[in-house]
UniProtKB/TrEMBL annotation:
This is Large ribosomal subunit protein eL34. Belongs to the eukaryotic ribosomal protein eL34 family. Keywords: Ribonucleoprotein, Ribosomal protein. GO terms for cellular component: ribonucleoprotein complex; ribosome. The keyword Ribosomal protein applies.
Length: 36
């Protein structure tokens, strides 16, 4: 494992986590808009 590979892997994992969070937030926003 080279340093660049490690960094790329961390970046990818971080992006995937970010996407999950964004999806959760968007779903929560959509639900709160429907209930109004």
């Amino acid at each position: 494992m080279c340093a660049k590979c490690v960094r790329d892997r961390i970046k990818r994992a971080f992006l995937i986590e970010e996407q999950k969070i964004v999806v959760k937030v968007l779903k929560a926003q959509a639900q709160s808009q429907k209930s109004k």
